[in-house]
């Protein structure tokens, strides 16, 4: 459990101080999207098929801080530093760098207690090798979509009648 709370504190502290690009409304939208997307994904992989779990199988109160405060700040950091205006090669290398960091973190989370808190059922690290870039690209697509929506001109509101 030490690793769990240390990761939550570390990720949130770094995200809070490092974010220079994302507006507060974008942070809220990304945070909310991350929680919703993680819950949908975990409903199947964790709860239904027991591919992996935190602490113990099934729904547990100790998982709640992780669902709310563990992954969202990581996504904030990923998007904050993403090289949006750079070449495709720089973007690919950036995602590859994050892939390495995510796999290192997952390996750390798999350590025995008190440092580790993540457990595999049928899930294997090489599944994460494939899934992480897909999930990062989904996150990036969501970010581009909300940025596009923010940049659209709103229709003027007609007089209230």
UniProtKB/TrEMBL annotation:
Organism: Weizmannia acidilactici
Name of this chain's protein: Uncharacterized protein
Transmembrane intervals: 21-41, 61-81, 93-113, 125-143
Source organism, top-level taxon: Bacteria
Keywords of the record: Membrane, Transmembrane, Transmembrane helix
């Amino acid at each position: 459990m030490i690793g769990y709370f240390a990761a939550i504190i570390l990720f949130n502290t770094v995200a809070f101080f490092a974010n220079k690009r994302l507006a507060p409304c974008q942070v809220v939208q990304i945070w909310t999207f991350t929680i919703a997307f993680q819950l949908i994904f975990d409903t199947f992989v964790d709860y239904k098929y027991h591919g992996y779990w935190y602490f113990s199988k099934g729904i547990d109160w100790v998982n709640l801080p992780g669902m709310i405060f563990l992954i969202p700040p990581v996504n904030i950091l990923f998007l904050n530093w993403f090289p949006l205006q750079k070449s495709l090669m720089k973007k690919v290398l950036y995602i590859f760098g994050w892939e390495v960091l995510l796999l290192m973190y997952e390996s750390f989370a798999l350590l025995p207690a008190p440092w580790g808190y993540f457990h595999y059922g049928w899930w294997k690290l090489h599944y994460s090798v494939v899934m992480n870039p897909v999930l990062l690209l989904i996150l990036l697509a969501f970010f581009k979509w909300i940025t596009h929506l923010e940049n659209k001109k709103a229709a003027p509101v007609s007089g209230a009648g």
